[in-house]
Amino acid sequence: MEDDAWQRECVMDVTPGGNETWVTECDPNIKPAQGQIFNNLDDGIEFYMKYASIAGFDVRRSSDKKNRYGAILRKKMVCSREGFKETKNTGSVVSDAPTKARRRRPSTRVGCMARIVFKRDKTGRYVVTTFEEAHTHCLCEESYKPFLKVNRKLDVGHQQFITNCSKVNVGASKSFDIYAEIVGGVENVGCTQQDFKNYRREVLAYMQGRDAQMVISKYLDIKSDYSDMYFEYEANEKDQLARVFWADGVARQKFCAFGDVVSFDATYKTNRYSLVFVPFTGVDNHKKCVTFAAALIAREDVESYCWVLRHFKRGRCVNVIELLVDY
For the whole model, what pTM was predicted? Predict the structure, then answer.
């Protein structure tokens, strides 16, 4: 019954040669036709992608032919399941050299012949010279269409949500679950969990090698905007970030009010940079913990702790008059 329900989403036909083909019954206005003319190639591609999203199949660009000036004369687009996966012949040569493990990727290609071909005419417009709508596989049913590549898009809203979740140490998978709960289901997200993971991976790859400079630049900008922000850092002989100390205006005000007793403790190296987190905390009049300052150090030695304590002493006080005005 499940297979029958799947095939009722599209119309199946049998060719004279005995091959089964599938087409989708949809509005003729959104279906390309041979001889159809578009003012430019982008309009033609967008039109075909729109048709594919409604019909229930993915599209990939196959080949094109250009003139010597780089203008595209002929463009071919095919179903994502066109052709067959090439098998590489490794031969019978035996080598002792270590081989890199490769991930096994299953192929979804079944030799589908659905395609469209655009050809540029003398006026610079593009004409549909070939349109084959029959597929050699059943098309996607309605409930799965939102997960097709042609219907998925990671927009600015998704990117900002992933970034905000990363700030509170929420991974891509959990971020996707939260977003799906907000919009009422995974079918309403507009992309997949793998898209969330890929974007987060790209962000981390961009930050790699420059994340320390990004932190320094951010705190220096805050320091230039707010006069009560105290921030200092130091690099080692390899020009790597070794020590960081910061205390914003609110933390310094809290120290003036509740700094009679200060707790100074260092956490274990639990982060990827093997940096030790050194917070300065106390207790306010509601018996709740408050932070006076914080630091990151690469080595737990006397010199590093002396450096932290020296800057804590320098940055702990604020103007008492300003404190009273703020309160």
Answer: 0.59
